[in-house]
Amino acid sequence: MTFRSFAPIMLACAIAAPAHAAQPARTPIEAAVKLADWQLARLDDLSHIPSATDETRKTRGWEQAVFWVGMTALADAGAPPRIEEAILAMGQRNGWKPGDNLYFADDQAIAQAYLWAAAHGAGKDALAPTRAAFDTVVDKPAVTTLAFAIPPQGYGATECLKRWCWCDALFMAPPAFVELSRQTGDDRYMRFAMKEFWATTDFLFDPAEHLYYRDSRFFERRDDKGRKQFWSRGNGWVFGGIARVLPLLAQDSPDRIRMEALFKEMAAKIKTLQKPDGYWAPSLLAPENAPPETSGTAFYTYGLAWGIKAGLLPRAEYEPVVRKGWAALQKAIQPDGRLGWVQQVGDRPDKVAASDTQYYGVGAFLMAATAVAALDAQR
């Protein structure tokens, strides 16, 4: 879909979240546990996901992996034991193996949950397959351009996918590599991750707009009003990924100092782009007639709340943004319990409906809930 065809679809979908949406639970953690239970009950039934594909069915693929990343955050926030038990059971079912495509960041995302499990009772067995895979990646790194060019064979054959040439990858892979260094004491994984993170950032970050292009195909793309196209969830992936990596870096690390500056630069821009209804538009610079969209909104709410708690963002300036974002996310819970308004799998702004949900949207909601709860506890 071209961006010119996107505008009328957005207009058709531009309605507020339904007034009859389910009432929010009493606390962020209660809301998160309730949604997690809803998703856990449907792991083997994809009928609730409008655009489910073979990739959605992959228990080691990125769509489900982001849900499990959110589950680890929820377990750390004091959720009932069944949340931790579900994570451990998932890893055991998967044999603690990352996805099949060794160099593909999306297939590395599930390792974040495995590494969490290794530190919460699963032990070294949960680390071994990931460490073996990552050893190959860092010892024999892919040599290819970051330019994104889809060949005639299709998207999956894109050469640069062996590296982090699309901004989503900065959520999927770096936290796992850096955490593996933390757990093993082997800094090769962290050094590789930081080298690739900055290569991607230098390539895809627009210093004028303080946002990331999804990939190089979007450098020259403009909408019918001449605006650059910055995808909400794409920048949400980056912002959420930074919030996951920063706590793992040494306080005096040059990478941490540089990444903190990048985080604050992005946060300042993101704050200005929130719509009055609390959501962020699917195309960040095109807020008019934009529907609610919860995946990007959840990642921004998570990242901003985390940044306040970490002392990187002034609470008085950013907390109102977080509160509006969290209120919007609660309103998106539908009468049947699902998180609605989640843009489906894609690589750019697209249509979205109240019934649209997805594993990764739920995972982002869980992370946002835990970060908001941490803010509440800090009062």
TrEMBL record:
Keywords: Hydrolase, Signal. GO terms for biological process: carbohydrate metabolic process. GO terms for molecular function: hydrolase activity. It comes from the Bacteria. The keyword Amino-acid biosynthesis does not apply. The keyword Repeat does not apply. It holds the Pfam family Glyco_hydro_88. Residues 1-21 form the signal peptide. This is Glycosyl hydrolase family 88. The lineage of its organism: Bacteria, Pseudomonadati, Pseudomonadota, Alphaproteobacteria, Sphingomonadales.
